[in-house]
Amino acid sequence: MLLIAPAAASRIHLLRSRRVGGGGGGGGAPPTFAVGVDALTGPQLRSLSSSFSCACSPLPSPGDDGKDGAPNLFDESSILSPVIPWEVDDIWRTYAGYFFIVHMPLSFGGLGVVAKVLNCSSLNPMTTVISTITLQLVELTLALSLLQYTAIPGHDVQAYFVGKVSTQRNWINAAVLGFGLLMTLVLITSIVADKLIGPEDAYDPTLKDILSDSPTSKLLCFVLYSVVAPLSEETIYRGFLLTALSSSMKMRDAIMISSLVFSVAHLSGASFIQLFVVGCITGLAYCRTGTLVSSFTIHSLYNAAILFMALLS
Q1: Distant-in-sequence, close-in-space partners of 264: CB < 8 Å, separation ≥ 6
Q2: Structural domain count, the chain
Q3: Is 146 in contact with 97 (CB distance < 8 Å)?
Q4: Alpha carbon 277 to chain centroid distance?
Q5: 245, 257 in Cβ contact below 8 A?
Q6: Is residue 64 part of a domain?
Q7: Any residues with CB less than 8 A from the CB of 18 and at least 6 apart, and which?
Q8: Are 278 and 261 in contact (CB under 8 A)?
Q9: How remote is the C-alpha of 245 from its chain's centroid?
Q10: Membrane-spanning residues where (predicted)?
Q11: What is the pLDDT at residue 77?
C-alpha cells in the first residue's frame, strides 16, 4: 500500500493541472477533475484499480493450511501428509464396508463358524486362541484388499502402509511417554468408573480360561493381544481412518472422531472410555511421529499390561 498510494496521488496532481477545452495563457477555464475522470475510465483506470486491489488484499496468515480455523497444537505437532490414496468422499463408505462386511462377521461370528466346522458345542482354550489369531489375520488381509479396491486408481496401498512404518521422528520417546500417559489416564478413568457405576469384573471369562490353560495358550494369547490385534487395529483406525480424516479436517477433530469410532467398534460399554483414551493417545503419537510403529508399540504394551494384570488376578 505504501508503494501504490504515492503513485496514485502524483497521478491525480498532474490531472488537476489540465484545462478543459485546451487553450493557453491565463484566460483558460478553472481547473476541473472532469478530464482526469475521463482519462481514467479506460484501461488505465482498470490498471490502477487492480493495483489498489492487489495492494489491499490480505496476506495469508502463517501456518494457514487451508483448513477452517486457526492452527492448534495438534496441527502444529502433526507431520502427516494430506495426500492419501482414497477420495475424501469415499472414506466413510470404505470404513462401513470394512466394519459390516469384514469386521462384524469375522469378529463376532467367526468362532461360531469354527465350532460348527469342527462339530463341537464349544471350543477349548487352545482352539479358541488359534482360531482367533487366524480370524484376525484373515480380517487384516481382507481389510487391506478392500482398501486397495477402493483406492484411487494408480495408488499402491501396500506401498502406502509400508511408508507408515518408517521412523521419521524419535518414535521411542513418543511410545514411552504415550504408554505412561495412557496407563495413568486409564487408571484414573477406572477409579472414576468404579465410584460412579461400581466395581465389576473387567476381564472376559474366555480370556481367563485361555490364560489359565497351558503355557502355549498363554503365549499365543499374548501374541494375539500384543501383536496381531494391535497390528490390525492400528492399520485400520490410525493408518487408514485417522490419516484419511486428517486430510480434510483439523487434526484434533480427526483424532477425536477416529478414537470414538474405534471405541464404538468394540461394542463394549464397560470399556468405552478406556478404549477412547487408547485411541486418542495412540492417534496423537502417530501424528507426532508419522509412523505406525509408535502407536503400535503403545497399543501393544497396553494390551500386554492388561493381560499381565488379568493373569495375576
Answers
A1: 272
A2: 1
A3: yes
A4: 15
A5: yes
A6: no
A7: 31, 35, 36
A8: no
A9: 5
A10: 95-118, 130-151, 171-193, 260-286, 292-312
A11: 63
- Residue 100 included in any domain: yes
Residue partners of 89: CB distance under 8 A and separation at least 6: none
Helix H or strand E encompassing 246: helix 243-246
Whether residue 10 is contained in a domain is answered as no
| Cα–Cα distance, 194 to 139 (Å, whole number) | 34
Helix/strand/coil for 270: coil
Residue 128 CA: distances (Å) to CA of 112, 210, 275? 10, 8, 23
pLDDT 10s digits, 226-262: 999 999 999 999 999 999 999 999 999 999 999 999 9
- Is 227 a member of any domain? yes
CA distance 76 to 70: 10
| Cα 32 versus chain centre, distance | 64
| Residues 6+ away with beta carbon under 8 Å from 152 | 85, 86, 87
What is the chain's pLDDT, residue by residue, as a tens digit (313 residues)? 433 343 343 333 333 333 334 444 444 444 433 333 334 444 443 443 444 333 333 444 444 444 444 444 445 567 888 899 999 999 999 999 999 999 999 999 999 999 999 999 899 999 999 999 999 999 999 999 999 999 999 999 999 998 888 765 678 999 999 999 999 999 998 888 777 777 766 677 888 889 999 999 999 999 999 999 999 999 999 999 999 999 999 999 999 999 999 999 999 888 899 999 999 999 999 999 999 999 999 999 999 999 998 888 7
Q: Which amino acid is at 185?
A: L
Domain holding 102, by residue range, is: 80-312
Which among 127, 44, 41, 77 is positioned nearest to 285, based on CA atoms? Answer: 77
Cell 487395529: give the residue.
Answer: 233
